[in-house]
Amino acid sequence: AQKVTQAQTEISVVEKEDVTLDCVYETRDTTYYLFWYKQPPSGELVFLIRRNSFDEQNEISGRYSWNFQKSTSSFNFTITASQVVDSAVYFCALSPFNQAGTALIFGKGTTLSVSS
Amino acid sequence: EAQVTQNPRYLITVTGKKLTVTCSQNMNHEYMSWYRQDPGLGLRQIYYSMNVEVTDKGDVPEGYKVSRKEKRNFPLILESPSPNQTSLYFCASSSPGLAGGGTQYFGPGTRLTVL
After folding, report:
1. Strand B76-78 vs strand B19-25: parallel, antiparallel, or unpaired?
2. Do A100 and B96 touch (CB under 8 A)?
3. In sequence order, what E strands does chain B have?
4. B94/A43 Cβ within 8 A
5. How far apart are the C-alpha atoms of B61 and B87, rounded to whole Å?
6. Given pLDDT bands bounded at 50, 70 and 90, which one contains residue B100?
7. Residue B24 has pLDDT above 90, yes or no
């Protein structure tokens, strides 16, 4: 069975703190894709990043960084110097390689609240 | 601007009154999907389509119909809505392939209330 677990239901931080959102996945597939999406209070789902299972390089984009570790089946997301605008629900998701673009298995999401 | 659009954004209806939520994408994507999002249950796939006239069930297809007559459009049909279909609905589109493919881009969502 394929599954994505986001153990942190809610996280509250103060502006400028760093915060890491955890994501652990289960799959028997050797190739797959991992994603992070952001759902701000306005409700839309915004794509943040896609990672192939055969590429374990970490990625940094501005204040965002992602740590993919295949050995621990984790794909964690860190926000550096958080801002109020980062307040949102963040979803980690998994897609089997042969179902890329159709199947997307979501975690339950982590609600991040950043206060000023 | 590349986007997925959904209409209506908000809808309140009554049990049994047929409704259609439209979805359109301008990215020439082959794949399209519908999801529903419910508190405590997260996001679940209803139906997906890999091409015109090719559709398949997702995890929670009961009570829904879809059609894909044109590449850009993928309407969701509730022929006899019931209160348990009250939810936030998302349409998504994607292209296949390795180079950037497989990423699903979502529409803004349709909040449906069935009384």
Report:
1. antiparallel
2. yes
3. 4-7, 10-13, 19-25, 31-38, 42-51, 54-57, 65-66, 76-78, 87-94, 105-106, 110-114
4. no
5. 14
6. low
7. yes
Contact residues, chain B, for A106 at CB < 8 Å: 42-43
pLDDT, tens digit, 9 for 90 and up, residues A32-61: 999 999 999 999 999 999 998 888 888 888
**If 0-12 CB within 10 Å is exposed, 13-18 middle and 19+ buried, where does residue A75 land?**
buried
Going by the DSSP 8-state scheme, the letter that residue B83 receives in this structure is G
Contacts of B20 (CB under 8 A, 6+ apart): B75, B76, B77, B78
Tokens linked to A46: 């915004």
Residue-wise pLDDT for A4-21, tens only, equals: 999 999 999 999 999 999
Q: From CA B44, how far away is CA B34, in angstroms rounded?
A: 9
Q: What is the pLDDT of residue B14?
A: 97
Residue B74's φ and ψ, nearest 5 degrees, are -150, 80
Best of A35, A104, A105, A108 to disrupt the B interface by mutation (most B CBs within 10 Å)? A104
Tell me how far apart the alpha carbons of residues A44 and A37 are, in angstroms, rounded to a whole number: 10
